[in-house]
Amino acid sequence: MFTKLNVFATAHAMATHAGHRHAVIARNMAHADTPGYKAQDVKTFGTLVSESSDGSLFRKTRSTHMHGQDGLDWKSAEFTADAPADPNGNSVSIEEQMLNAVDAKRQHDQAMAIYKSALTVLRTGLGRG
Amino acid sequence: MNEFSNTLKVTASALRAQAMRLRHTAENISNADTPGYRRKTVPFESMTGSGDGVDLVKTGRVRLDGGRLPRIHDPAHPMADANGHYQGSNVNLMLEIADAREAQRSYEANLKMFDQARQMSASLMDLLRK
Q1: What are the two backbone dihedrals, phi and then psi, of residue A7, each rounded to the nearest 5 degrees?
Q2: SS3 for B59?
């Protein structure tokens, strides 16, 4: 358990994913009145995990770290959401983005809670609980 | 952390753009009775290529509404022509109020996103606390 710390890696990946999704949603929201803008979204964390070739979370979500490139992996997980567009070509629905943002926030909170609890377990193991 | 600063940046740009839109709406409303005044509108544009792949929102050049100015009959008006008509403004108050309300809603939504991003980064910082 103490050599790989999978829980921390997973929680980190989950929080990063939530942060990225939140950024994408914020961009949508900011462009809610820009003509011709198409709403974007990010694949769910679950889909990304099951899509990674060997199921290893490390490679899939932290490749940015290992290869020293930023954002490449997340970029490929983005897709244009299929939604009806306004007459001016804008397909952002503020209500839907609001719900998505709450979703992302909850995922982030969840990851934080997992991280914190695992930290407590480690601390208890060290006898400083 | 970088994502959060991107979020804050793009949201702030949207807040600025909506505030600018509201300012022009206010100008229109206050000039609703100015003779010869044409309604002002600002287009929203996406500002791509600002470095780190964040496309911020910006307002473009102010446009004047090309709609016809109404001819108002008032011979006593100082600007009236020989027939007793002068040109009014083409501001439609109903339209301006609706526009202002829409700008307000968008502003609130963006403010909410800003606050949410702030909370998320604050919870991240809380991990460092015992």
Answers
A1: -60, -45
A2: strand
Cβ within 8 Å of residue A83, ≥6 positions away: A39, A91, A92, A93, A96
The whole-angstrom separation of Cα B44 and Cα A69 is 32
Instruction: Select the residue from B48, B120, B126 to test the A interface by mutation, using most A Cβ atoms within 10 A.
Output: B120
Contact A101 B45 (CB under 8 A): no
Q: How far is CA A87 from CA A6, A35, A39, A99, B107, in A?
A: 48, 9, 15, 23, 22
Assess A5–B contact: CB distance below 8 Å, yes or no: no
pLDDT tens digit string along B35-62?
999 999 999 998 876 666 678 898 999 9
Please state the pTM of the whole predicted model: 0.81
User: Is ipTM over 0.85?
Assistant: no
Query: Torsions phi, psi of B44, nearest 5?
Result: -95, 135
For residue range A31-66, list pLDDT tens digits in order: 999 999 999 999 888 888 887 754 444 444 454 554
Cβ neighbours around B127 below 10 Å, total:
11
Nearest to A78 by CA among A120, A38, A124: A38
B6 CB neighbours in chain A (<8 A) are: 23, 26
